[in-house]
Each structure stands twice: as C-alpha cells, then as structure tokens.
Amino acid sequence: MSPVDILLLGVIFALVALAARYVYKAKKSGSPCIGCDAGKGCCHCCSTAQNKK
After folding, report:
1. Using CB atoms within 10 A as the burial measure, which of 10, 44, 50, 52 is most buried?
2. What angle do CA 9, 14, 15 make, to 5 degrees?
3. What is the rounded distance in angstroms from the CA atom of residue 18 to the CA atom of residue 11?
4. Is this structure's pTM higher than 0.85?
C-alpha cells in the first residue's frame, strides 16, 4: 500500500467514525428522527416515529 492509500483509508475511517458518533449521540438524546432538521415531532416522519415508541 502506498502512503496515499493509507491516508485515504484514514480519512474514510474518520468520516465513518464521526457519522457513527453523531447517530449514537442523537439516539442517546432521544431524537426520534435523526436526519430531520425539525426532529421534535412537527413533521410527518418525526410524528410517526414518536407514535411507535
């Protein structure tokens, strides 16, 4: 493996780790709809997610 390949793998790993951390923190805080800007039950996807709890 060349140094460029190792650098790219490191960047990809860091992005995946940051995304996983974001999802973990959002779920831990009780957000019913992670990707939604509203996230508080005022949109259709958040309202249905809250009703399933």
Report:
1. 50
2. 100
3. 11
4. no
What's the rounded Cα separation, in Å, for the pair 49 and 17?
A: 25
pLDDT for residue 8 is more than 90 = yes
- Alpha carbons 29 and 50: distance in angstroms, whole number: 14
Any idea what DSSP says for residue 52?
Answer: T
Separation of alpha carbons 47 and 19, rounded Å = 24
Question: 21 — phi, psi (to 5°)?
Answer: -65, -40
**Residue 34 near residue 26, CB atoms below 8 Å:** yes
What residue type is assigned to position 36 of the chain? Answer: C
**32 near 24, Cβ under 8 Å?**
no
Cα distance between residue 40 and residue 53, in whole Å: 14
